[in-house]
Amino acid sequence: MPDLDQFQSLAIATAIGFLIGFEREWREAADAEGRFAGARTFALAGLAGGAAGLAPGDGLVVAAGLLGIFSLAGAAYWAKARAEPTTGATTEVAFAATYLLGALATGGAPALAGAGGVATAILLSLKPRVLAAARAFEPKELGAALRFLAIAVIVLPLLPDRGFGPYDAVNPRQIWYFVVLISGLSFAGYWLIKFFGAHGVLLTGVLGGLASSTATTLSLARLARAQAATPLGAAAGVVAANVVMLARVAAILFIAGRDVAAVIAPGLAAAAIAGVGAALLLSRRDQPPGGAIRLGNPMELKPAILFAALLTAITLASRSAVERFGAEGFYVLSALAGLADVDAVTLSAAAQADEAALTARAAGLGVLIAIGANMLLKGGMLTIIAGPRAGTPTLAAFAAMAGAGASAFHLQ
Questions:
Q1: CA–CA separation, 98 vs 50, rounded Å?
Q2: How far apart are the C-alpha atoms of 159 and 173, rounded to whole Å?
Q3: Which of 219, 290, 317, 361 stands the most exposed, by the fewest C-beta atoms within 10 Å?
Q4: What pTM value is reported for the model?
Q5: Alpha helix stretches (DSSP H) within 326-359
């Protein structure tokens, strides 16, 4: 006798077909098109797939049924295409998918089949939005999206994830990760600005700061240089990214070194408050030019590759400094290493404080020095790439943040 699980799986297979078929029936009625199959026919296809999945024969029954489904769908498409050559085959493909999902439901994965059925119905219902998005895409935007997918999905996994060269400091995958990150931030910034205008620059800074404030600075500097963002808008975005960076440092220390976090918390809080005030002031003073915002290339690889090369050089210099100065040069090392990566200094300081190689206060001061050096580098980067109209207010904001943080740390 069939057990309850088989009845449930067969019911899921039928429900999947009904859901997909109901969407097709509604869509084709709304589009006033001829209907190949509706809710009942799709439900029967799902039921047929479920029954085939329960039948013995090591999948031969499922394969035979699929051949019949393809034959039926192919004949229906051929008849429809003769009357309307530009017709699509979405419904016919969905019909075959329904049969396979029904077989999957009774083949041991009913939850996966149900999720597949819901996903299929959602994809089918997105037709108007997909068409609108496709028509809104410009050729350069599609090309940029494909280039980004190529460097992220094809190139990145192929690179070795280990150190090469002096001190094993050159990790190809880690370096290319920054290329992907910077390119992705630039691409995201392009779309945020396209949809949100001047407010998109500030959003880019806030969201980008969660991943890398340095990469975000480079991306916003490029946008300002291309006149896709105003100088003050880029400055506000860069300052906002660094406020988020302070929050990220606090979170790292809270997890890895709570003694250091307790010591450095007042300084980080004071710097963050000053940064929020500066970002809001710069954003309020920002006056975007009238008319449409000029948008350049959605994604350029050259700036990202140059930054990765710079990061590699700084990493090598930092490793050399570690060997030369040792533990006594911790503050110097913090400044040098902070030019490349604040998170690395933060983790190192927490570990040394935990091992009693440094006091919590000395470790906290080293983190603050690294943050200051990192902000100085980013202010200089923005000034060189986007010009003094963006760099000067950013450096002034960074000076206010550094002063507030140092004062709060010193008074503790």
A1: 10
A2: 5
A3: 290
A4: 0.57
A5: 330-338, 342-354
For residue 337, give the amino acid letter: A
Q: Which segments within 75-122 are labelled E, that is strand?
A: none
Show me where the domains of the chain are located.
4-133, 139-411
Amino acid at 319: R
Q: Give the N- to C-terminal CA distance of the chain in Å, as an integer.
A: 77
In the DSSP assignment, the letter for residue 152 is I
Q: Is 8 helix (H, G, I), strand (E, B) or coil?
A: helix
Look at residues 58, 124, 122, 53 and name the one whose alpha carbon lies nearest to residue 95: 124
pLDDT for 291 equals 42
Structure tokens at 372: 């200051």
Give the integer Cα–Cα distance in Å for 160 and 219.
Answer: 26
Burial profile 115-142: b = 16 or more Cβ within 10 angstroms, e = fewer: ebbeebbeebeeeeeeeeeeeeeeeebe
| Residue pLDDT, tens place only, 188-213 | 766 766 666 656 677 777 777 776 77
Spatial neighbors of 393 by CB under 8 A, at least 6 apart, are: 231, 232, 235, 282
Cα atoms in the 13 Å half-sphere on the side-chain side of 8 = 8
How far apart CA 180 and CA 219 sit, in angstroms, is 12
Burial of 76 (0-12, 13-18, 19+ CB in 10 A): middle
pLDDT, greater one: 304 or 339: 339
